[in-house]
Amino acid sequence: MKERLRETAKNFFISTVLIIAAMYVTGSLFAPDQTFGYEVMIYPLIYGFLACIPSFVMYTNKELSVRQVLIRNIIQLIIILAIVEAMVFRGHISEFTPQAVAVAVSVVVIYFGVLLIRYKMDQKTAQEMTDQLKAFQNKTN
Q1: Range of the domain at 34
Q2: What distances in angstroms separate CA 38 from CA 8, 35, 85, 87, 128, one per listed residue?
Q3: How many domains does the chain have?
Q4: Within-domain flag for 127
Q5: What pTM value is reported for the model?
Q6: CA distance 23 to 32
Q7: Tens digit of pLDDT per residue, the chain (141 long)?
Q8: φ, ψ for residue 63 (rounded to 5)?
């Protein structure tokens, strides 16, 4: 469980940074003249937290096949989309269709961005472990 919390924390921080960037871009496109108070700074943290909830709900210790992982990722993405759209538009999506589409696209880009960044981080960790193992094997031979 400790490892799961560490992974979720990494996902949270990556998501939050990407959410801030997405909020800047979509805000600049749809409401460039609008100004906000400090209270808006909490929203990326809330959205980042909400985006991590599906990973806890769908957690398993069982080894999954590639197909199962893909299905699980699609389900997580759909859940995250539903949560974010519900939080942002509070049931009034039809009144803000262009913005809702932009938010949905942002969520998808952020989701895949997190997956890509985590993949690169995991790839780097695996390479470091491989290098350490090779060094250890060379010492023992």
Answers
A1: 2-115
A2: 26, 10, 22, 19, 41
A3: 1
A4: no
A5: 0.80
A6: 11
A7: 788 888 889 999 999 999 999 999 988 988 888 888 888 889 899 999 988 888 877 777 788 889 998 998 999 999 999 998 888 888 777 777 888 899 999 999 999 999 999 999 999 999 999 999 999 988 887
A8: -70, 125
